[in-house]
Predict the structure of F-box and WD repeat domain containing 9.
Amino acid sequence: MSEVRVNQHETESGKGVPGGLDQRKSPCTDRSNMELQGLSPPVSSPSAVPSPSPSASAESSDLLLLPWEILTHIASYLPAHCLINVLPKVCRTLSTVGEDTTAWQLRAQRLIGSRVRFPVGPRDDFDWPTSCLEMEQLITFWAGEVQHVGKQSEEEMDLVRLEERGQVAEGHENEGGEGLARVGVAAQEVAYGADEGIEVVMEVENDEIQPVLDVDQVEQLREGLEGRLEVDAAALIEDGRMELNADVGPDAAQHDQNDFAYPRHLNDRGRVEMVQDQPSRSPSPPPALECITLPSSHIALVNSVLLLGGKGAVCATGSRDYDVKLWDLEEGSNGTLLHTLGRKGDFTSHQGWVWCLASEGPLLASGSFDSTVRLWDLQAGGTNRGLIRTGSAVLCLSCQNDVLLAGTFNKRINMYDTRAAEPLIKSVHLHGNAVMCLAADDTYIVSGSEDCTVAVYDCRAMKALKKIKLSSYLSSMSYSGYEVWAGDKKGMLHSFSMQTGTLKLLSRFDVGHTALVTGIHKSAGCLYTCSTDKTVKIHIPSGPPRTLCTLCHAGVVHGLSVEAGIVAVSTGDETVNIWRPRK
C-alpha cells in the first residue's frame, strides 16, 4: 500500500510523467484526474509474480497521461466515426477529444485541400464533426469510382486526360475512343486539377448579376476552354460520335431538352411516350458499394424517386404511368414491390403524370400533372389519406412538420395544413412563371421559377423578403443549414447563404453537367447532382466542388434521393437504380 501512495503522489506532482511535462496544461478537471488515477492498477510488490504483459488498464492510463496536444494529434489519425461514436463510450476524457472544433477544421482541410473554400456558406454553427464524417464516408465509397463506371480502361482514361491537357503529340491515335469526353464539359482541370470544378463568383447589382473575375482568371479560363473544345470537337468528329442517337432518331437531342425538362402538355394520357431504346445497363459498383435495379414494374418513365424511413429501407417512385409505388429495398436481392398506391376503385394513383414526391414522418405526398396532391399514410400500408386540388399542375413539393408546400405551373406556391378538412392556408404569387423548385424550413421558403428568379418568403410574417434575378432558371434545389444549393437549366450549380431571411448569392460553379440539373442533394459533407445529360455526379461541397466520380447512364436521369448513405436514381427508362454500402 505504501508503494501505491508514493506512486500516486509522484503522479500528482508531475514527477511521474515522462519528460517532466506539466499536467496542468491538460483541460481535464480534477474530477477527471481522479477517474484517470482510478484506472491505474495497483503496483504489485516485488514478491508478487510479474505479469507477462502490461494490462489494458495500464496502457489506457499511460495514454491518458499524455499532454492534451499529443492526445488530440493521435486522435486526428482515427476515423471520424470512431471519434464520434466510439471514444465517448470509453471514458469522459476521451469524449472531450471530439469537441475540439479546431481539430475538426484541420481534418476537413486535410480531406479537401487548402486551395478550396469550405464551407462555402456561413461558418456560424457549422457542424464540423458531421461534415468530416460524411466526407470520409463519401471518399471511402466513391473515390476512384471513375475507374468503374467509365467504358474505358485505366490506360484510355489517362490518355484522354493527357489529350485534354494538350500533352499528347499530334497524330497520336486513340484506340477505343468510345468514351471520349463531351464537347462543353467543364474546364475543371484548368485551375484546380481533375477533381475540381470552376468557380465563377457573382455579384448582384440592381437585380443584375455581374461576374467577378480578374484579368488573369479570365485569360486562364478562356485558354483552357479553347484548348478543351478543340481537342473534344476533333475527337468527336473523328469518331463520328455526335450527340444524335440513331435508335431514337434525329429529334433525340431536342426531345431531351424539351420533353424531359418539365413538359407543358398536361393531363394528356395519349402523350405519354414510350421511348424504345436499348435496355440501360447500370454502371458497375465500386468495391464498397453494390448497385441493384428495382424490378421492372412501371410502364412509363419514372420522374421521381424518394427514400423513406430515415434508413433508406423503403423507396417510393412516381411515374408517367400515373402510378406511385412503394418498394422494400431490404427484401430480396433486388428489392420487392410492396404496394401500388391508389384509392379503392381507381386504376391508377393519379389521373396524370406523377411529377414529384415529398415525405414527413408517416405522410407521403405525391404531386401530379392532374392538378392534385394526394396524401398517403405509410404506417397504414400506403392507404389514401386525402386529396388536395391545386388548380394547376404540381411541379415541386416540400413537407415541413404538418405544412405541405406545393409549387405549381400557374406561378403560385400553396401552403396546406395536411390535418385540416379545408387544407389551404395561403396561396402566394411570387413569380412571373411556373415554380420549378422550392426548399423550406420552419420559417422560410426559398423558391425558383422559370422566370429566372429565386425568391424568399417568410412563413410566419406572411410576406416576401427578397427576390434575385438570375441568368438561367433554377430546376432543382436543396436547403441544408445556412446554405441553399440549386441547379439550373444550363447545368450550372448556384450556392446561396441563407441567414435570418437574407438570401445572398455566393458563387456559381461548373461541375461538368451540360444540360438541365434535374436533382440535387446537399448536406454538411456531401453533394449529389444529376442531369438530363445522362450523368449523376458525386462531389464534396467545397468551393469549387470536388467531383469524386461520375456515373454515366444510357438515358436521361430524372431525379435522385439520398438517405443514410444510400442513393436512389430514376433513369431515362422505367428503372430505378439503388446504390448502397455492401453488407
Observations:
- Residues 215-239 form the longest helix (25 residues).
- Residues 290-581 form a domain with the Methylamine Dehydrogenase; Chain H fold (CATH 2.130.10.10).
- The chain is about 20% helix and 30% strand.
- The first strand starts at residue 198 and ends at 205.
